[in-house]
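Annotated sample (chain length 615).
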Amino acid sequence: MVGLTGRIGRSDEKPFASSLESLRHTDRLEATVTYDEGVVQLGHTAYPEYPIDSFDRGRYRIRFEGKLYDVPEENRRDELERVAPLLFEDENATAGTDDQFKELRDWLLSVDGAFVLTVLDTTTGELVLCNDVLGRLPTYFYADKESMVFSRELRYVLESVDVEFDRLGAAQCLLFGYPLGDRTLVENVRRLRPGSLVRVRTDTVKTSMQSVYTFSFDDPAHAHRSREQNATQLATRFVRACERRAGHFDTDLISLSGGLDSRSVLAGYHAAGCPVEAATMESPQYVPVSDVDIAQELAADFEVDWRTYDVGQPRGADLDTLVKTKNGHIGLMTSFVLTFLRHLEADYGASMAYITGDGGDKVLPDLTPTGSVRKGTLVDYIVEENSILDIDQVSRVTRVSEDAIRRSIRDHVRTYPETTVDGLYIHFLLYERAANFLFEGEDRNRLFFWSDTPFYSLPFFRYAMNCPPEQKRRYNLYRSFLETLSPNAASRTHAVYGAPVNSRRHAAAALLDDVLSRYPTVLETLKPIIKAVNDLETDSNIDADTIDCIRHQVDRIEEVDVGLDTDELHRFLDTANDREKYAIYRIFAITSIVDDLSSNDRKSVLESREDAVFA
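Output written by the structure step:
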């Protein structure tokens, strides 16, 4: 995977340069050592076009990955040199007080970017690792009394230290698709949380992680403004976000579909006067025909160069690539996307910004719970609304009691800063589902080229999350935002409802959707009909060869002690025909990563089936 990597206190291990070779998953990736003195080694893995920089200024060794969109490229190094001292604790501030890291916090909240920054102070011997306030680039670290290792790829950390499988982390991952907070699938390997920093004393290897800033979603500050006023403010910030993201690479390319999010990006770049191209996936298995048709209409409306790429079913090598680069933290059902990304790289090269509509489904809709939910029942609601597998099934597979799983969720939610149920649930969706799962999916794209979205531009995000839920309900704020941004884009069919977002039919469908969401049993009954009417049904049957592959992995897992109940896994697979495909592939992701990590000198099951087709 691309990105920064470092280790402290492990100079007696294999040479650092050699250790970076395991991160070179494609021929275009180059491993570079940028610092190797004493017990500190820093480096990165990247292709030439990837935004990464290493430079020294005075006492500081600065290593930066990502983008600062509101800082001109020629001024970035000066800006980072100015920020570097802010990463180190103010000696006059008391830990945990408001004035600790105040200047750093103010900077993080003012900058529009996606990044990981590490700075070594050669005078004090301290090293600090810090990320942007949304945590846009997933990063992992491990620390004990003798060493600290960090990397943008979890696999590097796992190969550097002796670790054990975390059954509670696996339980959360099977339940939701992602572990919560800083937990990963392995014990003592942690995820860098958004807006946090890790400090390491390189002489004693004493390591600590501290939060610099965490958003609270209790009280929307713009509730006193009308929906139209908020829509105008949002459109202005969105166009600015698109303008800032344009022109950093040879090509700005939008991943265009029939949804509202990607067309908003297309309209935003058009309003900013920034040249852009677009591309759309075609696949009878994975992409509704209406998505392609609507994308073609939108491309014609905005007069952009538009291409389609046919993507078939993924092969074992594709699944194995996701296992090795994202290590079980994203589902294997998205493996077919790799074919699309390879087509784009072949046609446009790696000097491309792949711009998506990711985040539009988080910042503009109403994320508050449907119906009346009390604090005492919030955990039950979270499980009911977000689980992939039934919690009792997860308990049987992982041998973690259902009570322990629920308690882990409850204890984690209690660490959130919000006091209202609405705020707590929004926090869960943004800090867990978005940061720990959806951001991982975006990161998959960066193996080929830089990928980002204007929806997570910090000025836009902060304003959108301060708009009241009442205005966001049933696409009302989204409709006003899109009409302000581009009436033409608003008048084109929204693939989800088969009608333009500014039409009465769309309003009626959104109202029905809102009502049905309060009655989940009825909604599940009607879903097949709704999908068929709106041309959203695609072939999702899972074939016998895929089940056989998972069974083979389960048999291999039985040979290693990771605490999973292999008999229960086989019983689950016995009923595969009655299971949702997504649930089966969630199991598949876990069995694949365990098999891969435990294979040692032998090939993993997926490595031995690299040419097999998976449906």
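Annotation: Residues 337 and 591 are 21 Å apart (CA to CA).
Annotation: Confidence is low (pLDDT under 50) at residues 530-540.
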